[in-house]
Amino acid sequence: MRFLIQISIFICLCSSSDLSFSVLKSSRPQRQTTKAVSSSYPSIIDPSSLQQITDDLSILARLVNGISLHQGLSDGSSKSDDVIAELLNIESSDTVRETIGMTIDTNGISAKLDTFINDVGKLGSNPLTDSSEVKEEIEKLESIKSNADDLKSGTETVLGKSFIETIKKIVGAYEPFITLKDFEAIVQHLKLINSYENPTDNSKVIASYIDAFKKIKEKGASFRQAMEDFEKYKTHNVLKKFWEIKGKYTVLDPISKISKIGQWYQTNWKMLSSLSTKMSMLKKDSNVLIPLAKQNKLYSEISESLTTLIKLTNALFSSKQSAKALTEGFPNGPSDIALIRKDLEGSWLKENIADGKDVSKLSSMLELIEKLSELLLKPREELNSFGKTRKNTIDSTNGTASALKVLAEDGRVLSDNNNLDGSVQTLTGAMTGLQEIKGSPAFKKFDEVYDYVAFISNNVSNFENAFEEMDRIGYKDISDAIEKITLIAQTITEKTDVTNIEVNEAIEQMMKIDGFGNLVKLAEIAGEKLKPLLSNEFRALVKKKPDWNSIPSVQKSLQGTGLPEALGKLKNAKINLESINKMLSYGIKVREVQKSEIQLIKTLLTFIQNVKAGMKDAKDVAGAKPKARRNSDGELKVLDNSKSLSIDLGKGVNLLRKLLTVYTKKMLLTVAADYPNNVHRVIQSLPAMKTVWTDLNLKKLKEFPAEVEKLDKYAEEVKDKKDLLQVGSIFGKASEIQGVPIDNKLLKEQVVPTLQKSSDPDVKKSASTFSDLSELELDYSKHSVRFKAASLSLNSLREYFDEIFGIVRSPSAESQQIVEKEVKNGVSGETLLYAGLGTAVLVVVVAAIVYFCYKCQRDRKYYRRLNDPETWVLLSYTRENQPEKLGSGTCSLAYDYIVRDNYGAFVKCLKNGGYADAKVQSHKQANSLLHEAVLRDKPRFVEALIKAGATRETLNHDRKTPLELAKELKKKRCIKIFKKYEKRRFKVILPEPFPKHDYLIDVDRDIPLEEHYHSDFFKKFRQYQALQDKRPSHYVVKTDKDNVLHVKEHHLSMIFHPSMLMSHRWLKACLDNSSKISDNHEYRVTKMMFRKKIYNTVLEIKDFINRQNVPYLHGCGMSYKDHVKYKEWSLYHKLVPQLGIYDGTGEFPYMNYRHGHSFHRDDVARNIFLYRPEEEAEVQIAFKDVWIQNPDFAFMSTDDFIHFLLSFKIKSKKIKEIEYKNKKNGMIKPGGQKDKAKKKKKIEESNTSMSEPDSGALGTTSRTPTSRTPDSRTPRSTTPNSRSPGSYVQDSMTQNTPTSRTPGMTSRR
């Protein structure tokens, strides 16, 4: 077929070359003349010619766009809302519809705001200037009023007297016979001996045993004496005194409360003494505020209206970023339309489109849009005028709306609550007559007393617990065991030359001694829990005697102050703190509203009203269809394809203007290119600019003005031509300009900020130049199609205007003679020959087209299924891909055939849809079938997998490709197979399409049974309901109106699960139309939101999981804050196996220490510690010195961990290297990359439109590789080299493997 097509093309080319030879021959002298004329112009000229021809073509673009708009509005193909939005440079026509349809009464809001500000003005100044302090003291009183009884009992002189007398008798602490350092050394040596298993000849190990013997010989006696004291702890002369005071220090708690409250009272007495006066002032102020509070509904309505108006105003100033579809010829909006009337009165249109005839007849075609333009000038002026003060006005309106919302909420509480008077009265009565504390009670010294006894008591309790634990083990034979061990150690160490055999025998003798095992246990407990007793810490504190005389001073401190009595009155009284707090804050907030802010809001209201009126008038005019334009014969004159023609011509003219701007600023290009090397180095250090800011492109930057200069010379030749096509040939000439392949967006978004932050003053100074350069369009290679489209549009336009003005264009004299000769002589033989050849070629071409269409249709169906994530979800249900248990991990059926060397069954399995890239994996390993075939040296299986489309560059858990593994293991036969198919690629085998009755559907627990047609759906389609022991193929979750899933913790296990996520609206759609069960694309969840950040990674995650890639966090370990609270972390225990995380590390820091970084993220350690966000400060303090600075550990709150997972980024140097290697070897086709780039751009635009302005979630898209493992031949593969045309790119990153699937699912045959 290819041969036939080539022959056909060759014949056509030969025929066309013969037929056109004479024409080409006659055209040569004319081209040579043109070249000679153009060469006579100077090399540098002023761009006035290009300016003139651009202005002339702008006249035509305006006229054509006007005709197009008139036609579109007349026949209804163009919507007036879209036209108004484009003319006013507003991004969305929905904004126009919302503005016109706005029902908010702006005049009414203005009147209500005037009334409100007048009421506020009558309040006067706030009588409670220190309301925040008043609030704090009332809250403190409320919190301590329950201590009234303790304050009374704490004054009793006998309180704690017996306890204090007992503790005073303690004059010293236990003094051990051995130091803590020596005790710990012996404990370590005993543990070393106890860990002995087999005889050893290792010199280092033998030396450590000999050191242990020496220490035991030296300190054995002291160690035995200490252990004997521990055995007699209950009767020991010194220790038994401490048991008498254990836990009894709490008798001093009432006095401690007096001390704490007394110190607080002493600090805040002035405020407390005036509290009754403050309450009276609050009561008086509340009488004025309550009437305002009762207007809370009014404030709520105004707040909601202002919020709506703010959103609408922001939308009105959302400049159009997407391409214009109706008004490309009017770059300046309505003012450009107003110029058309002057254009018709000028000479250019008359000479170039009407052949000198009157063009005023075109005026009738433009009456509608001229009226539209006139009406839109006022809204445009309003937008321009208001835009100067928009930020301040919006900020003031936003602040007032928020304040009114709070006032409405607080006002509702105050107006509904009648307990304020009672609370104020209670506080006033209780706090009257308070007196200051007399003298200087020894509060600080008493605190030292309390801390002293609490420390001793707590330590004694710990000691007793340790002794009791040691008692449970028992001290039987302990003393004898220590003596025997010491004797053996002494015997060994006294020898001058000890052999290894003697050391091993000595250890074995020690381990056979009765009581040795218990001795080691006792020593470990004592060394760990009796450290304060064995060190000087406890003994030193006991010797420090506090000032016991401070106790009576503190007990009497509150007498005569009236505070205990006041707390007694408040104890049983109900004080409505919320009402008091609301009233205090209400008084502040209501006075914060400024009159100047209200005036700004009224400006906003006037602006909205004027814009609405202008838009409405314009829409009314545009909606009234004008009379159809007719020619003299009464036939309707219609410009076919008017929209596309006006867009093509308008874009071409606008690009000419951009070229003109480049030329006028040509010195800017030269300056930027000639900057010193330090500036260029900074720019080249940016990853995005490394391959862009090259010497070659800098050279092109300098030469760019010369290209535009040549265009200007050509413009000089054709600008005064009367033929429209000759004038329009400037577009064809402009299409030859390539410019510089530098994206001005990169300059603006990355280069300029980087230069501005530089510490080098010269580099920083260059930022302004590059800021100006970023405003220019530099890359015109992508615009050649636009120029050509503009050029082609002129042919249709000339035909249209020729018909309008009745212009008949005759062919040239030479062409006329040829036609007359052929008519006279009849059809020649040569013509018949050409006709026969043309017929043959036509037959061949038609046959080729039919075959090509068939092939395209077949491939389209294949790639549609291959690119559909649902295909891979359902594929995992087939018998060939169902995961089977293998140790602690899983494998596929094909792996079993490799192990059993069953080649026939293996090939059949692959033909039936067995996934060639299936993994054999657990939390320790992840090998593809190719890796396993290489490991077992089975070249036949390697060849079968390659032909089934297996990814040859996929990485295993050791980051090795199958070929690298084969070379490392020297599997020559496998290496030979890889080289044999090195240049060939094969499609992935897919089984027959899956029927929809194989679906298993489950619904999220957040969706109630009777909500969203959940119950009705399963009544009608019971066969689709997934039982508890079945993994669902589709999981239904609740989404918002934009089909975005608001992620909660329990969603994570389903997000990182092979099942498809579906919106709850799918259930209703299926009830209405059962075909929607399988035709469900529009109901698939593709976006997620967590903490106001939107992520578009759902489909990448599903694709990653079902392609069975190495789990995202493979090889990582996870531990938790308070891991013993298993239920609290149960959701994460369910999730982490799906991520490939080892979830058995337990409490941090007692975790299985792992060095290095995770598989897909070089910037993430393999040891992850998880905690709740509210525990962050505690974690930072607890682990600051030991763990935070250790790069082998990653600390994450649960929120950070969820953001980390959902953003799904890949940062792996190894994967990057393989991607680069594949690109270098030409394994990635350019077409596929273009498709990826387009889809990535589309996704980034979607992210920008949906994200919050300050969220940062999607406003800037991370540049992460689309791959997980290298060079997959399957579309959407998570490997570096995907060759399918449907491959897409987003902020990817995911995990999961078959380990997340439950074995034993219902298979599909």
UniProtKB/TrEMBL annotation:
Residues 1287-1309 have a biased composition (Polar residues). Keywords: Membrane, Signal, Transmembrane, Transmembrane helix. PANTHER family: ANKYRIN REPEAT-CONTAINING PROTEIN F37A4.4-RELATED-RELATED, DOMAIN OF UNKNOWN FUNCTION WSN DOMAIN-CONTAINING PROTEIN. Residues 1225-1309 are annotated as: Disordered. Residues 48-119 form the Domain of unknown function WSN domain. Residues 1-16 form the signal peptide. The chain crosses the membrane at residues 832-854. InterPro entries: Ankyrin_repeat-containing (IPR053345), Ankyrin_rpt-contain_sf (IPR036770), BRCT_dom_sf (IPR036420), WSN (IPR003125). This is ANK_REP_REGION domain-containing protein. Residues 1260-1269, 1275-1285 have a biased composition (Low complexity). Pfam families: WSN. It comes from Caenorhabditis tropicalis. SMART domains: WSN.
